[in-house]
Design a protein that fits this description.
With 641 residues, the protein is mainly β. Helix content is 5%, strand content 44%. The radius of gyration is 34 Å and the shape is elongated.
Length: 641
């Protein structure tokens, strides 16, 4: 951990607390006889790493102490290492009976941008105890000029200089936080163009922090070496200065670790790039760790590939906002949007491809080429969650790309009263001609509250008929005029999705035009469903609202063990769930219904239900668990080192 703490005193730079190690009190180390003649001199701080502005004085002053303070004393030091003989080391002059003295070190010939090392020690038995652990002092010094760089445009279009817009994808390794976008102060080394440091990035500006989460006593830096724009990396382990209960957090890069540990496989494919005014890294090319978590083990970070530092937004190829101003939209297909988050399936959701407009190209020659270079072709999913709220993304060489300015998109739904925005994880999403899978993190507009992550699918589905059989219902009629539709058995046909083989449909079923849609998981063999029956529940003239059939896991996340399964031997599909009326906040169940492939078997006994429903006794109220719950706690991550 590097600390840079300076103060001016009498025209000289006084080193106060710049040590890489903590300050120790060596009183009591070994044994020391106060009656002996030697002074027992020691360094208050034994190691220092210092960066100085070229305008600062070329002098540092180091504190030296003694335990035997009798008389005045002049103490010389032995020089063990002195890079280019640049350092001039004086003596420590102890005044009469003084316990402290100062040692002046000058370096007037030190060049800017060069790192120098000095090592001195006390080995005279007249001055130092043989038990001393602080008789040697090491100094690493660099004279560096840092210049403020970068700018961004605020919400009013004003240019704010000395800052760059930053997208976080580091703390996402362990904590369920969104890829927040916010400004951070940035500086560039004067003697090394492309070598940057980000200042206090995870301090007051970081939206997920609470007061007291970060250390305000000093500056913390993230160093980025972009001197080669094609080989960008974080060259040293950088303390972020923020602690969420596991000690200070650190960031590093796979390339930096690979260089340190001489592991070429860590380096290959993990360099970032500095292009079009911004720095990006590949997915999992960054590392993150915490002091008190597995001995500061280093874990994969930038897991969504969203890390981004926009230093000069004027160089970015983004054309305009909204994207509708720049592209016409050509429909590709109408498909089914299957929401893992909501547990719903919506047919007739359109996918569009962006087509360049001639007038835009005429006004901005080459703009579409620049756009395509970074984002490929834009695609739009029309109103998957709510009318008028589309999802837009790019596809480049078959991979999903998040378009600048569209990192967070309004979905038109709410959670705990807040509008919900979606952040696409490009690295964990996929695109084919028939199936698009978007891994979306749900959060509020500010980005400081997250409601979970799910894979949402748009598919141009085709179905194969597997065969017919008998469906056995488990409850009686829900509607007064439904007759016996929900009791007994009915012939039905089973279809399997060609593009998503875990998806099935049974038709006919209940009053639903779609049939009963369900998934048969290849991972755990469980059957899940959440399907509208096609009619409301009406009792004694009162309409209680539309009825849905939902599995028990959707009803309560803790009921996974009660999900139905498929029995290969008997060709039986088992549906364990409840009939659920959202408007009334209640439902009927739990019940089990079955579909058996082939000829109708002898009807299995059906669970008994009252002929006439008494709302107080048969209508079982429950609170449907929210599908938007703030995430907290540690996530699983892959340890690298």
């Amino acid at each position: 951990m590097f600390k840079y703490v300076y103060s001016l005193l009498a025209g000289a730079l006084v080193l106060t607390a710049v040590s890489c190690s903590d300050e120790y009190d060596y009183e009591g180390r070994g044994t020391w006889d106060a009656d002996k003649d030697y002074a027992d001199i020691y360094f208050n701080i034994t190691d220092s790493v210092i960066e100085l502005d070229p305008a600062d004085p070329t002098t540092v002053v180091v504190t030296v102490k003694r335990r035997n303070a009798a008389g005045a004393l002049s103490v010389p030091f032995k020089v063990l290492k002195n890079t280019d003989e640049v350092f001039e080391v004086g003596k420590a002059e102890f005044a009469e009976n003084a316990e402290e003295a100062t040692l002046t070190i000058n370096f007037p010939q030190a060049a800017v941008g060069t790192t120098y090392n000095l090592q001195i020690m006390l080995d005279d038995p007249a001055f130092v105890s043989k038990y001393s652990s602080a008789a040697t002092y090491n100094l690493t010094l660099t004279r560096v000029k840092w210049n403020d760089v970068g700018f961004y445009y605020d919400e009013d279009g004003n240019k704010v200089e000395g800052y760059a817009m930053y997208t976080d994808d580091i703390l996402t390794t362990f904590f369920g936080v969104g890829n927040s976008v916010f400004p951070t102060k940035v500086q560039e080394r004067d003697d090394m163009p492309g070598y940057f440091r980000l200042i206090n990035t995870y301090g007051a500006n970081y939206p997920w922090n609470d007061p007291g989460d970060w250390d305000e006593s000093q500056d913390y830096y993230i160093f980025i070496d972009a001197t080669d724009p094609e080989k960008v990396y974080i060259p040293k382990k950088c303390n972020l200065g923020v602690d969420w209960g596991y000690g200070f957090m650190y960031v590093y890069s796979m390339v930096g670790l690979g260089i340190e540990k001489e592991k070429n496989d860590y380096i290959e494919g993990n360099y970032g790039t500095y292009a079009n005014g911004k720095i990006t890294f590949p997915k999992n090319a960054l590392l993150m760790g915490m002091e008190n978590y597995n001995n500061l083990g280093l874990y994969d970070s930038n897991s969504s590939g969203n890390f981004c530092l926009v230093i000069n937004p004027d160089l970015d190829p983004y054309i305009a906002t909204p994207l509708n101003d720049d592209f016409a939209w050509e429909k590709i297909f109408d498909g089914a949007f299957i929401s893992e988050k909501l547990g719903t399936s919506k047919d007739g959701v359109a996918l569009y491809k962006g087509v360049p407009k001639e007038d835009v190209e005429a006004d901005n020659p080459g703009c579409y080429d620049r756009f395509a270079e970074l984002y490929g072709t834009p695609y739009l999913i029309e109103a998957p969650y709510a009318e008028g709220k589309n999802i837009i993304f790019g596809v480049l060489d078959g991979e999903i790309k998040v378009i600048e300015g569209l990192e967070s998109q309004d979905l038109g739904i709410k959670a705990v009263g807040d509008d919900v925005y979606g952040v696409i994880g490009a690295g964990s999403s996929s695109f084919t001609d028939a199936v698009i899978k978007l891994k979306i993190t749900f959060q509020n507009k500010k980005g400081d509250m997250e409601y979970g992550t799910a894979v949402e699918t748009l598919a141009n589905l085709t179905w194969t008929e597997l065969g017919s059989g008998v469906y056995t219902y488990g409850v009686e009629a829900l509607s007064e005029d439904a007759g016996s539709f929900y009791e007994g058995t009915t012939d039905a046909t089973l279809y399997q999705c060609n593009e998503l083989p875990e998806q099935y449909i049974l038709k006919p079923w209940a009053k639903s035009e779609e049939g009963l849609k369900f998934t048969l998981s290849a991972e755990d063999g469980k059957i899940r469903f959440y399907q509208y029956t096609g009619e409301p529940y009406v009792y004694e003239g009162t309409n209680y609202g539309d009825v849905y059939f939902m599995d028990l896991e959707a009803y309560n996340a803790g009921y996974t063990q009660y999900l139905g399964e498929y029995d290969e031997e008997t060709k039986t599909y088992e549906f364990s769930g409840i009939y659920y009326i959202p408007a009334a906040g209640g439902g009927f169940g739990p019940i089990t219904e079955t579909f058996v492939m082939g000829d109708a078997p002898e009807a299995a006994p059906r669970k008994a239900f009252k002929k006439k429903y008494n709302m107080k006794s048969s209508f079982k109220p429950y609170q449907l668990p929210s599908r938007f719950q703030p995430r907290s706690g540690l996530k699983n991550a892959s340890k690298v080192w």
